Amino acid sequence: MHQTVQAALGINLLHANQAGADDNRSQLDQWGIRCLNLMSSPGAGKTALLEQTLKALASEFKMAVIEGDMTTELDADRLRRYNVPVIAINTGRSCHLDSKMVSGGLYRLSQDYDPHSFDVVLVENVGNLVCPAEFEVGEHAKVALLSVTEGEDKPLKYPLMFQEADCLLVTKIDLAPHLDWDFATLEANVRQINPQVTLIPVSAKTGAGLDLWFDWLRSQINFPPQPTPNPSP
């Protein structure tokens, strides 16, 4: 059976993006930087989480942020208040960051700072539950966020995001008492998709669960570099 032109183009785009992501990861490894890709729907709380993260850990680690939005630098400006480098990328009509965009962000970071001095780059992807999960950017780990206001069924309706996640943060848990929402149901749905994912309920407003998130993030930043496999003879 012959592929449609659209399918072939999609495969080629993903292949080219993956090659760029591999290059980004190799460059980050040379600099000794860990990279995390934060993904969620709009309004799940990525920027609020990053604000609390920078406030708590920017004195412990040398951190930078690549901030993706379709338009404006509103979120980037919120994060710049914490005196860390924030590279803003406007994607225009694109619903996700891709490896080429992030490569440009890393280049800008390396022009303005010594990249070897950083411990971690946090990528805040464009708010979308579908596209960001398909396009790697060179990250070492993926973090998905799901707010309690979105319901327990989203892992079943948008499985790729949750399959790909290394850590799932269930956000805005301070609102849970006011909603018809059940954590056990959400967890069961998530485990169907990804049995191994680290699941952490958090509230950026009250601080609940943030210490567990910070500890998980520390474990990623301190993760030892992996040896490059020897090429097959």
Task: Please tell me about this protein's structure.
This protein has helices spanning 5-31, 46-57, 74-80, 99-112, 131-134, 154-157, 159-164, 183-193, 210-221, and strands at 34-39, 63-69, 86-90, 120-124, 141-147, 167-171, 198-201. It is an alpha/beta fold and 233 residues long. The chain has a single domain, classed as 3-Layer(aba) Sandwich (Rossmann fold). A seven-stranded parallel beta sheet has the order 3-2-4-1-5-6-7, with helices on both faces. Helix 3 links the parallel strand 2 and strand 3. Helix 1 packs parallel to helix 4. The longest helix has 27 residues, at 5-31. One of its GO terms (biological process) is protein maturation. Keywords: GTP-binding, Hydrolase, Metal-binding, Nickel, Nucleotide-binding, Zinc. InterPro entries: CobW/HypB/UreG_nucleotide-bd, Hyd_mat_HypB, P-loop_NTPase.
What is the structure about, briefly put?
Strands 3-2-4-1-5-6-7 form a 7-stranded parallel beta sheet, with helices on both faces.
The helicity comes to: 40-55%
**Derived structural class:** alpha/beta
Distance between the termini: 35 Å
The neighbouring-strand order within the major sheet is 3-2-4-1-5-6-7
> Mind summarizing the main beta sheet?
7 strands, parallel
Approximate shape = globular
Keywords: GTP-binding, Hydrolase, Metal-binding, Nickel, Nucleotide-binding, Zinc
Family: Belongs to the SIMIBI class G3E GTPase family. HypB/HupM subfamily.
Protein name: CobW/HypB/UreG nucleotide-binding domain-containing protein
Domain CobW/HypB/UreG nucleotide-binding: 38-199
